[in-house]
Amino acid sequence: MTFNRIAVYGHRGWASSAIVNALAASGAPIKVLYRPSSDVSELPPSVTTICVDVEDQKALVSALQDIDIVISLVGHEGVRRQLAFVKAIPKTSVKLFVPSDLGFRVDEQGQQIPVFKNKDEVEKAAKDADIPTTLIWPGCMAESTLSIGLLGVDYTGNRIIFTGDSRYQPMNTCTRKYVAAAYADIFASTPPSQLQDRAIGLSELKATGQQIYEALRKKHGAEPQTFIHSLEKVDTEIGKELERGSPLAAVWWFRRVWGAGQIVPNVGRDIWEMDGYHKVTLDELLVEGKIEPYREAPPQLIGAVSATFH
């Protein structure tokens, strides 16, 4: 088996740390590029590390000389820093760039939200520079979607918001473990020429709002507290939060996309399947309680999200 030489930028996040560990376990040679302020002490011993300021083009080009694939896993605050890779990659032998995404196709309304606008800017810049790219779209992350209320599902509080037609529309979701395993399966040894210029969807579990409702009822032995939000209400809330510059704009937008039945279509048709991988079921996650905890979110955000359940 021939492995790709992979550079990863962004390794400490909730999802990115799991992805880096899975890539390292695959046997592919992994190099983590990190900032001076970043901690690399918990990385697997097989991972090579190099401290680099990505704005230093000479240093970045040097760090990428022996790399086939660059995978960026930066969080929201680092999205625009990826433009440094767009400038550097044409000066190297890198065959594929994977910008940080981990979502799904964003519509015109979503493009008004700064983080999605910034991601789109990076992706367009890479295309304009003729850099082969691959996007990974898992839809929604199960741990955040089902536990802290981002899409109107409060697993621990036994509450659910039906937005628009979300009671009957499927949500596409993946656990962190599934996404990490998929990154390793996709990028460790697949020739970059087979991956370039693709938006690859991941699909571990699809569930409608009603199916989630029933799982909550079985888990708690009581009917979930239920709220109904129209798409018109959600559009109004998106507008208000955009004016305030609030991260809640994205929360309301995610709910709208589900309520309009667009999450599954926006993951696309190019779905990557892993042979022999056990996909988790809704009952395993919610009824049996196998859902892993999500990262510790700021109390202000948790409070603001909780306040939308009315």
Automatic annotation (TrEMBL):
Residues 4-223 form the NmrA-like domain. GO terms for molecular function: oxidoreductase activity. Pfam families: NmrA. Keywords: NADP, Oxidoreductase. Transmembrane segments: none annotated. The keyword Hydrolase does not apply. The keyword Lipoprotein does not apply. InterPro entries: NAD(P)-bd_dom_sf, NmrA-like, NmrA/Isoflavone_reductase-like. This is NAD(P)-binding protein. It comes from Hyaloscypha variabilis (strain UAMH 11265 / GT02V1 / F).
